[in-house]
Specification:
DNA damage; globular; mainly alpha; about 110 residues; Arc Repressor Mutant, subunit A; MethylDNA_cys_MeTrfase_DNA-bd; 5 helices; ATL_DNA_repair; WH-like_DNA-bd_sf
């Protein structure tokens, strides 16, 4: 099993206008409590990749900032807004409204 490739393959399934959480991706891969591994894998994706890295956010419905990649949080927000995703005044996304629910998943997080 190549975990990084499995993460990328799953993230490619998130449709435009939807978001998933790092923990949800880990859970769907059978790796509960490994949200950080998902984050590390997505951190390594090139910004112009075909992997929609911008559709994965933290469990609070917010964009996680990465100081080493200055400006990517603004780019992530811009990409999400371009897909119709809305942020509240605190910078949160309503996961009930915009959260991705793949077939068979009852609850992600």
């Amino acid at each position: 099993m190549n975990l990084r490739q499995d993460i990328y393959q799953l993230v490619r399934q998130i449709p435009p206008g939807s978001v998933a959480t790092y923990g949800q991706i880990a859970h769907l891969l059978g790796l509960p409590n490994h949200a950080r591994q998902v984050g590390y894998a997505l951190y390594q994706v090139a910004l112009d990749s075909d992997i929609p890295w911008h559709r994965v956010i933290n469990a609070q419905g917010k964009i996680s900032t990465a100081p080493q990649r200055h400006g990517t949080d603004e780019q992530q927000r811009w990409r999400l807004e371009a897909e119709g995703i809305e942020f509240d005044p605190q910078g949160r996304i309503d996961l009930k409204r915009f959260g991705w629910r793949p077939l068979g998943e009852k609850h992600g997080g």
